[in-house]
Amino acid sequence: MLKKTIIGFMLALFAGPLSAHAELPGQPCQKEQIGTTKMADDKQNIIACLVTGNVAPENVQEWKSMTAGSRTRYSLTCDDWKKIGWGSKDECIKDGRWHLVYVNNNSGGSAYGNISNLVDYANSGADVKSNTSGSVGGSHLCSSIAWKDGVLACMDTISADASDLFVTSAGPNDGTVFAGSALRRTDGMRMNTNIVPNNSGNMQMTGSLNNNRKAMEWYVRF
Q1: pLDDT at 154
Q2: How far apart, in whole angstroms, are the C-alpha atoms of residue 137 and residue 27?
Q3: What's the pLDDT at 7?
Q4: Which of 9, 84, 130, 171 is least surrounded, with the fewest CB atoms within 10 Å of its CB?
């Protein structure tokens, strides 16, 4: 039986396209179709008729079709989910990797995607992060999010620069940041809160609101 299966598989790989095959994997093929192939309607997958086993108690051979396609191909946006083999865009988005779902322009409007999809994914438990468009690095992983008046706000985790834990030659008021956090919004607004040394050497919290809106990319990961 194994030998017949291997022979059928090899024939299927090298045989030319023929018509009248089952169109989906798992559907029965005709016995005379063993070793034949055709392209699926999406022009991506090969459908082949192979020996898969004996059906008891009649002990006759059963033919099945199969597709030679992978459902693990990665897409940044998943807009091409059908072409790369996923059953839906949601399946592609929820494959455990980062996907771009929304981009705001520097006027606060939408440059790509629908903000409601970003909010739905966030509310469904996805991790969310943002990048300033065109920048190298600068990812902000959202530790918490808020949604109000059509705007999603992303609060990143407070972080510290290890070099600022030591006294610098510039003195206590060199302006280096000891710790800080940022709030980024899908309307392009950014707010920063930093802890910096003041003239007396004590740590002082400062905050700023950047009115210069930035285009930002928003990603989700399940």
Answers
A1: 94
A2: 48
A3: 44
A4: 171
Mean predicted lDDT score pLDDT of the chain: 74
Six token digits for residue 40: 């699926």
- Residue pointed to by tokens 């494959």: 95
How is the beta sheet containing 60-67 ordered, strand by strand? 37-39, 46-55, 60-67
Give the span between the Cα atoms of 87 and 72, in whole angstroms. Answer: 12
User: What is d(CA 29, CA 48) in angstroms, rounded to the nearest whole number?
Assistant: 9
Taking Cα atoms as reference points, which of 115, 199, 201, 111 lies closest to residue 150?
115
User: Across-strand partners of 192?
Assistant: 182, 208
Give the Cα separation of 49 and 35 in Å (integer).
Answer: 6
Q: What is 26-76 written as a DSSP string? A: TSB--GGGTT-EEE-TTSS-EEEEEEEEEETTTTEEEEEEEE---S----S
pTM of the model: 0.59
Full DSSP string of the chain: -HHHHHHHHHHHHHSPB-SS--SSTTSB--GGGTT-EEE-TTSS-EEEEEEEEEETTTTEEEEEEEE---S----SS-TTTTTTT-SSHHHHHTSSS-EEEEEE-TTSSEEES-HHHHHHHHHTT-EEEEEETT-SS--EEEEEEEEETTEEEEEEPPEE-GGGGS--TT-TTS---SEEEEEEETTS-EEEEEEEE-TTS-EEEEEEEE-S---EEEEEE-
Question: Cβ atoms within 10 A of the Cβ of 174, count?
Answer: 12
In this structure, the chain runs to a length of 222
User: How far, in Å, are 83, 89, 141, 146 from residue 95 at the CA level?
Assistant: 16, 10, 19, 25
